Amino acid sequence: MAKTIRSALVFTGRVINDTVSFVVFSLLDLLDLFLCLAYRVADFFIEAEWKACYCSPSKEAITNSGKILVSEHGESKIVCLSSTKLRLEEISDTLYRRPSLLTEVSKLTVNELKRLKLDGLTNANNTNTNINVINSSHHEKNVIKKGSSVRSTFMVNSTIVEMLQGKIGGQQSHIPIPRWSDCDCKFCTCWTSSSKETLFVKAEGPRDSAREDVLFIHGFISSSAFWTETVFPNLSSAAKTTYRLFAIDLLGFGRSPKPTDSLYTLREHLDMIERTVLEPHKVKSFHIVAHSLGCILALALAVKHPGSVRSLTLLAPPYFPVPKGEQATQYVMRRVAPRRVWPPIAFGASLACWYEHISRTICLVICKNHRLVEFLVKLITRNRLRTFLLEGFFCHTHNAAWHTLHNIICGTAAKLDAYLTVVRDRLSCDVHIFHGEDDELIPVECSHNVKAKIPRARVKIIEKKDHITIVVGRQKTFARELEEIWRNSSTRT
């Protein structure tokens, strides 16, 4: 009887949650549309130009020729995307394709209008091989295959095109101009000269006599302080004299550069880590400790340097195996941000992931005024709250958070299987996974999924701990666990 009642209550709760969520997120869809228009007007009057957003229509079809036609300063030119430049496939389609009731209705309306328009057009002569200037309001790009008169047309989101113009055309500035909605304090806009484009890194340990190196990578909207304020002080004296410790602020977060023209792709994040730590410090063999989103970067880094990684320690890795027939990026977005009002952390993730303009508003209120918010929090809590967590949460830009969330967590969904396979088959390093039992953001099943993919991985579920308290609050214990992992890895090799 009790079991039946419990099942009925769970079912009722789920129905209420689904119903309330549908209403709330339908209203948020409308609000985000209104804010889109409001920000366009504000950007125009404050910055004297329209700012493109990801509400523009887009199309998935991208050709394989490696050439696109872009418009710049009223002129059109062909741009080749080489292996050393930004490539379109690195950009997640979830940036501009987030299905909702409102977007589906809008899409049907637009498609119907296009059909009616096309029915009324007359046939034009398309046999010449000249490149025509395309209607920039729809951002359609023509691609011409070498030795052929056949042209294919595809659409690329306006924001991507604008950023590509700067990156490939050499127009970008190494000292970005902050958006009016971003904080412009020295801490937040710390991009330096072109010869010093590196991340902020906190390094500890002996420079010359260190036996091994350890790289710490934080998670989403966090900073290196997540490690330096918890793990670093609790490592033993022996560990501090044996290992060089590197904790970085990822590109766009904490005290690291926050370039306004960056798309914060996986390639950009990895390049900056290599340029900041591996190359200047001549790191050849190292351990990696990563949390949440940082686990994806850790796996990508391990795959790129398979012979250098001594051990992989992953905390709450966001790995969701994609069912057959599902589109990987869209599936992971729905898992991470399920458009539900409960639990609260799922509601927060949904706001951050689904709504470009609502999340920009949140950054405008909190991040732009982070110094005032930090003061008020300290005043109200009488300095009882761990302020280093506030630093990581407040000190980023909307551009950095928005693109990193989509291009790393969602955009790498189709790559993670391959990364894990490489770690399983080509790397001999130890793999240790820690996960909080009460983690509501990244479910425990994600760690078990990694274990299924890499059988030698050791999974430890920490009771009564969540996404943050898996480290914060148990830092002494975790420091001992890390030392044991590093020591055993060194002994085994």
TrEMBL record:
Membrane-spanning intervals of the chain: 20-42
The keyword Phosphoprotein appears for this protein: no
Domain AB hydrolase-1 positions: 214-320
Keywords, ordered alphabetically: Hydrolase, Membrane, Transmembrane, Transmembrane helix
Example of a GO MF term: hydrolase activity
Gene3D superfamilies, alphabetized: alpha/beta hydrolase (3.40.50.1820)
InterPro entries documented for this protein: AB_hydrolase_1, AB_hydrolase_fold
Keyword Hydrolase: yes
Protein name: Alpha/beta hydrolase fold
Species: Trema orientale
